[in-house]
Amino acid sequence: MTQPFVLGCNYWPRRKAMYWWDNFDAGEVREEFSLIRDLGLNVVRLFLLWDDFQPEPDKVSTEKLNYFGQVCDIAAENNLGLDVTFFTGHMSGPNWAPRWLLGGGVPSPYYGWVRQLVSRGEIVESGYRNQFTDSVALDAERLLLRAVVGAYKDHPAVWMWNLGNEPDLFACPPDAENGRAWVREMAGLIRAIDPKHPVTCGLHGACLEINNNLRVDYVYGETDVAVMHGYPMYTQWARNPLDPDHVPFLCALTAALSGKPTLMEEFGGCTVPPGEQSQTWEWTAYGRPRTQFMASEEDLAEFLRQTLPRLHATGATGALVWCYADYVPELWNKPPCKESKHERFFGLVRARAFTWTAAAATLRLADEREIAALYPQFEVGAVPPFGTLYGHPVFLEQCFVGEPEMVFNAGTHTESVCMHYGDLADLVKPVVGTFGVPPRSTRKAPTVRKLRPATRGASAPFAGV
After folding, report:
1. What is the pTM of this model?
2. Which of 5, 137, 239, 392 could form a disulfide with 243 if both were Cys (CB 3.0 to 4.6 A apart)?
3. Is 50 part of a structural domain of the chain?
């Protein structure tokens, strides 16, 4: 049977970002997971910030384990699967090191420097030891996997275990064989505890471009699932910052090298305020000049509309957008938002209000094979009248609101249902929006914008995708 194409997002709370485990609020998570569900997404990737979950190398925080359990419960209530990422690690510019790992050199060879190091929620001036070779770190990793997987392997919300987020940006193995052996050991440890759920490791496009000792063929030769992260706006060889073939190409290449269908686990882009044209921002980040393409909401929505069907056509198993939401201005003076200003506006929804104009780009018409796989009891090409009967959200075009007569499929090609909009809304509580694609207007060429603190202020929140 054909498997449905997975749609999801990467998750940090819009009000808390990387600080949520130390300021946990189950109500906030419930509110946001409900919206993610209503957007029609079915997978959430989240990150167990290493320093929060393992304050000492021989201790896993029972408090954080309990919080994670509450997140699992809330995900299950909303029919969301969790892609659970360990050893975070690198995130959104800075590296976030456990306090006990501090000391030593710079274990990532990319820059010869760490852009910013955060530990205990604060910026620190320090190096840290290599997670792939340090004996204390390796023992700590084994302990964390045993604690989390052992406690939640049977939870219905667990969808996949993930060994890291672009781990080469945090540390690199000394050679490719060591990298493969590390993945083999950690994946084997998880499987010994939980043989039911797949294991992966979150590699990104650099693993296809340079020798960082985390080879795609080696790593995914040891995991159950291949994934890839890619952003044309970060890639010099992409045809343009919103190249719709870039992400599908990365997935196809990863699948060819690994011999496994590939999930696009991270992709997306950062946006300017609604109504503004795509442009380039310039500022100083981490003591160095930074130039960043920022898409208009409309242009990024079009990028998603073009990219998603191309991913499906190349055999990708699904796509997880980065990220769930823009961050509220209260986070803008903290890592990562203070230096990585574009990270403030990388969301699928806006920071201050739950709106999803650009999020509609994640929607597409399903083909007959997908419909048949989802609803085998119905005639091929027909759909049930109420998607909510099967746990699927209902999306309704704005123009239908208030219609006295709405006629739609009743599961066959010869029967239909007719009812007032108000009755339908009471039954299925649809997500109402504008989902059709209007003709694109001619867009002005991107402009360069110097970003100064005064230009942003505390003005209205930005939209993102």
Report:
1. 0.81
2. 239
3. yes
